[in-house]
Specification:
single chain; alpha/beta; Conserved hypothetical protein from pyrococcus furiosus pfu- 392566-001, ParB domain; five-stranded mixed β-sheet; two-stranded antiparallel ribbon; elongated; disordered N terminus
Length: about 290
């Protein structure tokens, strides 16, 4: 078996205790020097992935390349596992485990650490955010999960994961795209730059239609901006309208959506009164909406 141990590596070392800011998110105890020295060799068949692992997509081509590297150089970074009955559950290193199976290894180097299910989930989230090959939708999902589970604001999260608030805001906005567009982004058929432009369209239908054109015609971001403008023409107002009808209110709502590029609702009350609600998801978006009103 080809196995080479060269320590935890920079990313995992940061994950498990070297970065103080990340410890503010989780109270997971770091791996000790003694545990590193007590690294074990475990049969691959006794190791199982974490079923709650946030990362779902593993690029097959990338796995094949890693498997080939493992055949030549061995495993240079041990897995982190925890004992679960008669088997071991992966805490960090599922991609290496998958590639090792492809490479035909029967045993893997691992550090056994006693973690609770909650601690494992916390580590998986942080590890996923630190990965360089995480697709934009996976990253946005990890951000949202951290905010939901730990009650973090975007500002607080930005401090802990060393990303700007604007970057986190833009990342979270990607989750507002329809599923079809998110799939194109996951598969790199469109880029994050394309996706940001598509968010300017006011309906999921338009976003999906425009994204399909962008992917099929391999449009640049600048070309996508022109395409979005062609989708984005504001219809002229009818000369006469009965504001008492539901259709007229719907038309007015749609016109406001087109003008402000935002989600708008008109709440009707009695005697021709009501209120207009404009929804925004970041300070940047609020400023853009105000610029349209001014």
């Amino acid at each position: 078996m080809a196995v080479k141990n060269k320590g935890l590596g920079k990313g995992l070392g940061s994950l498990l205790g070297d970065v103080a800011d990340l410890n503010k998110i989780t109270e997971v105890p770091p791996i000790t020097e003694e545990e590193i020295k007590n690294e074990q060799t475990i049969k691959l068949r006794l190791i199982e992935p974490n079923r709650n692992q946030p990362r779902k997509d593993f690029n097959e081509e990338g796995l094949q390349e890693l498997a080939e590297s493992i055949r030549v150089h061995g495993i240079v970074q041990p897995l982190i596992v925890t004992k679960r009955g008669d088997h071991y559950q992966i805490v960090a290193g599922e991609r290496r485990w998958r590639a090792a199976k492809i490479a035909g290894l029967r045993e893997l180097p691992a550090i056994v650490k006693d973690y609770s299910d909650k601690e494992i989930d916390e580590i998986s989230l942080i590890e996923n955010i630190q990965r360089q090959d995480l697709n934009p939708i996976e990253e946005a999902g990890a951000f949202k999960q951290l905010m939901d589970e730990y009650g973090l604001t975007q500002e607080a999260l930005s401090e802990r994961v060393a990303k700007s608030r604007t970057a986190i805001t833009n990342s979270l906005r990607l989750l507002r795209l329809p599923e079809a567009v998110q799939e194109l982004l996951k598969n790199s058929d469109i880029s994050t730059g394309h996706a940001k432009v598509l968010l300017g369209l006011d309906t999921p239908e338009k976003q999906a239609e425009a994204a399909k054109i962008v992917a099929e015609q391999n449009l640049s971001v600048r070309e996508t901006e022109k395409l979005v403008k062609s989708f984005d023409k504001v219809p002229s107002a009818p000369k006469k309208r009965d504001l008492g009808s539901s259709l007229a209110y719907e038309e007015s709502e749609n016109r406001l959506k087109e003008l402000l590029k935002a989600r708008v609702r008109i709440r009707r009350k009695k005697e021709n009164t009501g209120r207009i609600e404009i929804e925004y998801f970041s300070l940047d978006e609020l400023e853009r909406i105000l610029s349209h009103i001014h």
